[in-house]
Amino acid sequence: MEEQDLLAKKELLALTGISYGQLYRWKRQNLIPESWFIKQSSFTGQETFFPKDKVLKRVEAILKLKDQYSLEELAGIFTPELTNKVFKASSVQQVEDLDQGILSLFIKHLAKENFTFRELLFVYALSKIDQSLNLGESWRVDIVTTVKGWLSQINSSDYRLLVCQTKEHKFCLLLQEDSILLLDSDSETLANLKLNELANELRSRLTGLEELV
Amino acid sequence: MNNQDVTIMGESLLSGGGYGKVKIMGSAWAQEDLEAEKIRVFGTAEFRSLKAGKIKVMGSARFEGPLNVQTLDIAGSAEALATIKAQEIKVFGSLTAREEVSAEKFLAKGILELSSLNANDVRIELAEVCRVGEIGAENVRVGPIGMFRLSFLGSNHKKILQAEIIEANHIELSNTIAQTVKGNQIIIGPGCEIGTVEYKDSLQVHPSAIVKHQVKIG
Predict the structure, then answer these.
(1) Domain span at A50
(2) Residues A121 and A202 grouped into a single domain
(3) pLDDT for B126-168, tens place per residue?
(4) What angle do CA B101, B149, B206 make, to 5 degrees?
């Protein structure tokens, strides 16, 4: 893990001129994320530290913007919807239900160090499919490259991801959510996942995760 | 909409969704997330994630998920396993919380067992032993409960606040045992035992109080 520069709470207040009351108020209003309050033991007991660059940038921004916007509006500016967030590869590897093998394929084939929410959504969907159908290593590689192509063409999660089988051959389909798929009688649908539903499940698993702003 | 009012007299499961006024006389438990305008618990209740306008607990309540509420009044007892976010919290009974409790106004005259409290104004009137890991606020006032209150337990009964750290702009303490107190203007009153006080503008220490180290900052 990379070592990040930390700043003690006391130094933060001295450097920026804000008070304890302000700091705690901003924390209450979600202007400064909970995850930035890092507790570490020191010789005087426990001390709170912050990721130095991030917190200084944030406090400066709050001080500059607080006269133009209400604290609520500011919270919206600083914590956009999860779907706009970018997550570090190292932190998403800890998320349950994301298959490690598929994640590492994404990292390899998409040259990824960070994941957007939608990319993670596909990782999650593929993890589910792989878990129930157990499709093997070569399929995984193929589907990851396929998804790479899909991702550049879609801009919402209003889709269904299907796995179908014709005789021995399995294939994936990405359909718009409300479209109907009728197959010939030799084929069957093995999996049918609504991305929007998965997005809700994934959202709860990702909250609290360290994001990269 | 379909925000119906519910009264539970016996024992019942509360299904998830939105409610108007909820009154629990018997015992009720929710297995799903709830939203309600007003909740009054006279009996016992158990909630998952809960969002409400007003909650009054006269009996006992247990919040297993995050609680988001405008005003929280606890005359009975309440236990929270996740965070509590409120505008105003009043505790006359007892409140136990494992995660952060945050509010604009926090007033307690009962028993507290909190890991972390973040509020604009914190006022704790000591009627019992209160334990709070850390307090972060704009103003903190800790003192004995009004002197006209009858105490059936006699004067030997210890009424103190135990805290690890208290940080606020203005702090006024009495009967408090804390490792660290940090602030701008600090008054340490009678019955206090403080490890380290860090102050910016002013510090007053009562002759009977013990302050091991004091440091003036900047």
Answers:
(1) 6-79
(2) yes
(3) 988 999 999 999 999 999 876 555 555 555 467 899 999 999 9
(4) 70
